[in-house]
């Protein structure tokens, strides 16, 4: 047997975003049913290089398909300026759970970008008002583009407001979507008033005030992925219907981690996990709901789901590069 090598372009071409959204949704439901194995994310901190490595293994049995994978990913903030490399680099090994054969080695950087957007889309579909047509984005980096593409797949987005400290990045974003959406640069307050808001920043002190949010705004809190990170006003977290992706990860490294550690939030403030909503065990948006918020830390099961789509589509198309990895 041959292992399929999928580079960045292969992943982008074959990890079709609507299919990834569906697969990620299936993985959330499978996790709630107990049909996944997902050990805790492990970290190797490298303060001397201002970076870290993260190992994320998982197995998913989602009814018609099952798969296992492990992603090796990093966060090195100095990479762009010092080495002309992305801040985040990822490599994923996708395996057959029956034989353990490595079916594919693929780019995990684009895969991470796609599955993160897909998780926000799943949450938006279950928690945003059905007629949501405006999207605010705080942070105009690479993930902001995927947030728009993914959320536009589940809601008829017409108006987009992007906020960022870098005016050039804002304009690049607006230019990219010219003709497809009514996109404009604005302040964080402008973005927060939209029907859906996705925040994608690494800040450690809240930048989105509770008073700026619309009465029915759904928030995807994406930026907090490590202890100490915190984008949103604690009042928002207390007032919102608060949905998390994983209890352990969110309380240690998600948007809620800081107020949780301070005792400002408790179990009573959490509506539940997204998997329970997808599985039909817990309510999503209900008619009387106001603000909803999804705390997204990023789960290894999402990587497995996205990798499944990329691998199956590439194999079906006869694309990618076969190579021998396993000897006999």
Structure write-up:
With 328 residues, the protein is α/β, with parallel strands linked by helices. The chain has two domains: 3-112 and 301-323, ornithine cyclodeaminase, domain 1, CATH 3.30.1780.10; 126-299, Rossmann fold (3-Layer(aba) Sandwich). The chain has helices at residues 8-14, 17-33, 79-83, 109-127, 142-151, 167-176, 188-192, 234-239, 247-253, 257-262, 274-278, 300-317; strands spanning 3-6, 36-37, 42-46, 51-61, 66-75, 90-95, 102-107, 134-138, 159-163, 182-185, 196-199, 218-221, 241-244, 270-273, 292-295, 321-323. The strands form two sheets. Strands 1, 2, 3, 4, 5, 6, 7 and 16 form an eight-stranded mixed beta sheet that branches. Strands 10-9-8-11-12-15-13-14 form an eight-stranded parallel beta sheet. Helix 6 (167-176) links the parallel strand 9 (159-163) and strand 10.
């Amino acid at each position: 047997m041959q292992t399929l090598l999928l580079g960045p372009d292969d992943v982008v071409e074959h990890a079709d975003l609507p299919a990834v959204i569906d697969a990620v949704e299936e993985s959330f439901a499978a996790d709630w049913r107990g049909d996944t194995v997902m050990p805790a994310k492990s970290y190797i901190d490298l303060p001397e290089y201002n970076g870290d490595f993260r190992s994320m293994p998982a197995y998913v049995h989602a009814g018609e398909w099952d798969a296992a994978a492990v992603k090796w990913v990093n966060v090195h903030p100095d990479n762009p300026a010092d080495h002309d490399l992305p801040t985040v680099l990822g490599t994923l090994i996708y395996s057959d759970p029956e034989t353990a054969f490595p079916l594919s080695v693929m780019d995990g950087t684009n895969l991470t970008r796609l599955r993160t957007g897909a998780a926000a889309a799943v949450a938006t579909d279950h928690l945003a008002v059905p007629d949501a047509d405006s999207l605010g984005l705080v942070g105009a980096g690479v993930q902001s583009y995927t947030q728009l593409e993914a959320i536009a797949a589940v809601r008829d987005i017409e108006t987009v407001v992007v906020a960022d400290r870098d005016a050039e990045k804002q304009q690049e974003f607006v230019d990219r979507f010219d003709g497809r959406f009514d996109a404009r640069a604005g302040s964080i307050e402008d973005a927060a008033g939209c029907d859906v808001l996705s925040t994608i920043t690494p800040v450690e002190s809240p930048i989105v005030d509770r008073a700026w949010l619309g009465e029915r705004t759904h928030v995807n809190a994406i930026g907090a992925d490590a202890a100490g990170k915190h984008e949103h006003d604690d009042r928002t977290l207390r007032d919102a219907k608060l949905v998390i992706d994983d209890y352990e990860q969110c309380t240690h490294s998600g948007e809620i981690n800081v107020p949780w550690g301070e005792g400002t939030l408790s179990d009573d403030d959490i509506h539940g996990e997204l998997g329970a909503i997808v599985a039909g065990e817990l309510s999503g948006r209900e008619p009387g709901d106001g603000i909803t918020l999804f705390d997204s830390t990023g789960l290894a099961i999402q990587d497995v789901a996205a990798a499944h789509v990329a691998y199956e589509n590439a194999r079906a198309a006869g694309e990618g590069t076969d190579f021998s990895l396993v000897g006999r």
